[in-house]
Design brief:
The protein is of the alpha+beta class. Helix content is 29%, strand content 26%. Strands 1, 2, 3, 4, 5 and 8 form a six-stranded antiparallel sheet that branches. A two-stranded antiparallel sheet has the order 6-7. The structure holds adenosine-5'-triphosphate and 2-amino-6-hydroxymethyl-7,8-dihydro-3H-pteridin-4-one.
């Protein structure tokens, strides 16, 4: 089984329901076990800043899918929620990014892992580190070290809901 960390973000429509639906779709796949879901964080938009705040979570899954299959699953979830690609870093009903796939470094035309911008994004690092009690491996240790230097409030990341409802959806409660 492969250990995979995903980042999920949304800033359109019913944001919490969007997160719930995305996790439900992942859980519905026989090849995916949802091990941990972070609390929900409200985060100021990064990149293109003239848009609504996001809700962000990180999810740890175990899966037999390869990394390229996992990318397809993420894109399938996005399309099931009706995501329309408008412009880079623009508003979105849902966005699933693969942060880490085991300890692998992957670089293909369609997939780069670790996610190339994850280490500069507090909205990724805060939920990610929350669900990794011991940062095992170089990549998580780096995420942990960078986060220690960040001022989360200044970065616009605040706890929105330590969501029991979402936590109920993970296999370890
Ligand atoms: N680790 C990754 N996770 C998800 N998509 C990736 C990854 N690496 C490369 N991609 C590619 O990035 C493409 C664009 O993704 P997307 O439109 O979600 O970008 P974005 O979310 O707007 O920006 P960002 O990549 O900065 O998060 C996808 O079609 C996918 O092939
Ligand atoms: N706060 C926040 N900002 C973003 C996000 C996101 O999920 N949260 N996703 C982006 C593209 O991946 C660009 N900017």
């Amino acid at each position: 089984m492969n250990d995979v960390y995903l980042s999920i973000g949304t800033n359109m429509g019913e944001r919490f329901e969007n997160l719930q639906y995305a996790v439900t779709l992942l859980k519905g796949k026989e090849e995916i076990e949802v091990v941990h879901i972070s609390s929900v964080y409200e985060t100021a938009a990064v990149g293109y800043t003239d848009q609504a705040d996001f809700l962000n979570i990180a999810v740890h899954i175990k899966t037999s899918y390869s990394s390229s299959e996992m990318l397809k699953i993420c894109q399938w979830v996005e399309s099931e929620l009706g995501r329309v690609r408008e412009f880079r870093w623009g508003p979105r009903i849902i966005d699933l990014d693969i942060l880490l796939y085991n300890h692998e470094n992957i670089e293909t035309e369609s997939l780069i892992v670790p996610h190339p911008r994850m280490y500069e994004r507090a909205f990724v690092l805060v939920p990610l580190i929350e669900i990794t009690s011991a940062p095992v491996g170089k990549q998580l240790q780096r995420a942990h070290d960078i986060l220690q230097q960040m001022d989360c409030e200044e970065e616009g990341v605040t706890l929105w809901q330590a969501s029991a409802e979402l936590k109920m959806m993970q296999s370890v409660h």
